[in-house]
Amino acid sequence: MRVLLFPLTALCLLLSSFSSLLYAADDWYRPPVSVTWQWQLDGVVNEDYDVDLYDIDLFDSSLELIQRLQASGKKVICYFSAGSYEDWRPDAEDFTDKDLGKTLSGWDNERWLDIRSKHVREVLSRRLDLAAEKGCDGVEPDNVDSYRTNTGFYFHRNDQLEFNRFLAAQAHKRGLAIGLKNDSDQVLALVDDFDFAINEQCFEYSECRSFEAFISNGKPVLNAEYREIYVDDESQKNTMCKQSLALKFSTLVLPEALDDKFRVSCLP
């Protein structure tokens, strides 16, 4: 009888341990609707804002900065470009010439990436490894709607969906939350795969309704507006913020350089 009990006990312990691992793998940060935030990608990060989370650059932010922010009770989202090559990044040489497409309009030192490339995905997976190693709570992969752009490659809507889902799955595999950046046309298809949305200028371009599916699913929409009128005209700002609050969006008015020269929040 003892001979039978031992393997059964061992099996139960093994299954229990496996269940714990599954739970841990599913235990990443999930920001709530109306979360407060600060977004700064350029310059020395101002750590003094009383907000729930910071969105900062993956490469430029030190482990010590991330740990200080977290020690003060803030979550940290780490930004990197997933859809474009940036020639100043420390891993820029990891991309091959065939990975690189046309130059981004307005950004002479960036080129579109072939999101179908296995090699590109390997480089991006290493960036997600870096985010996990630095202790980021989540990531913001940028330029994930390039299928609508003349990139120099011939990929389509379904290629973009598959690529974005790849990023989400790889982030979650590493215990990282992940935000869907812009890509308004694919929100309904991707809302279940992502933990929050980050949008730029949805009020300016009348795209905010596209992101309501995130709110309906209990996931926040982090929105940034860049129009100077929202800084210079209190009435215009109040009107926009009233609309943002009605939608339960987390809207900031920021400089387009995201360098903390000014900051206006629609949330208290």
UniProtKB/TrEMBL annotation:
Provide the alphabetized UniProt keywords.
Answer: Signal
Its signal peptide is 1-24
Q: Does the keyword Signal apply?
A: yes
| Residues annotated as domain Glycoside-hydrolase family GH114 TIM-barrel | 36-261
The yes or no answer to whether the keyword Signal is present is: yes
Q: Which InterPro entries does the UniProt entry name for this protein?
A: Aldolase_TIM, GH, GH114_TIM-barrel
What Pfam families would the database entry show? Glyco_hydro_114
Recorded protein name is Endo alpha-1,4 polygalactosaminidase
Q: Which organism is it from?
A: Marinomonas primoryensis
Source organism lineage? Bacteria, Pseudomonadati, Pseudomonadota, Gammaproteobacteria, Oceanospirillales
